[in-house]
Amino acid sequence: MHIAVPSKAPVLTLVTVLNSTSVEVEWQQVPEDSRHGIITKYVIFYTFEKVTGEKQVPGSLLKVVVNGLRQSATYSFRVQAATVKGPGPASNVKNATTEGKDKSSFHEHSK
Predict the structure, then answer these.
(1) Residues 9-24: what's their mean pLDDT?
(2) Which of 6, 66, 93, 102 has the fewest CB atoms inside 10 Å of its own CB, making it the most exposed?
(3) How many Cβ atoms sit within 10 Å of the Cβ of residue 96?
């Protein structure tokens, strides 16, 4: 089999806000006939105000929790699959807005 970069992107299916600094990202595998080899890793990109971070996970995983995000911030997420030859195209984009500070930690004082 000829090994090449994936010719199709994974499908980003779910972006779930877990709390004020963490989001779970879930995707579907690249179709088998578009993988062109073994998927060695997935790269998750997340962007907030023109600053992009990335997280790499083994090719056996189809979801990951991204931690260390800013509170009350809207992030754009996308994912790429990669073989030993490199990454394929990026997935569709999904947005998620992290929660604000825990409201239970604020106490209003009235007189």
Answers:
(1) 97
(2) 102
(3) 20
List CB contacts of 108: < 8 A, sequence separation 6 or more: none
In 9-71, alpha helices (H): none
Q: Supply 54's token pair.
A: 């990335």
The DSSP bridge partners found for residue 45 are 54, 78
Burial of 51 from C-beta contacts in 10 A (0-12 / 13-18 / 19+): exposed
Between CA 40 and CA 83 the distance in angstroms is 5
Q: Which tens digits make up the pLDDT trace of 27-78?
A: 999 999 999 999 999 999 999 999 999 999 999 999 999 999 999 999 999 9
What pLDDT band is residue 2 in, cutting at 50, 70 and 90? Answer: confident
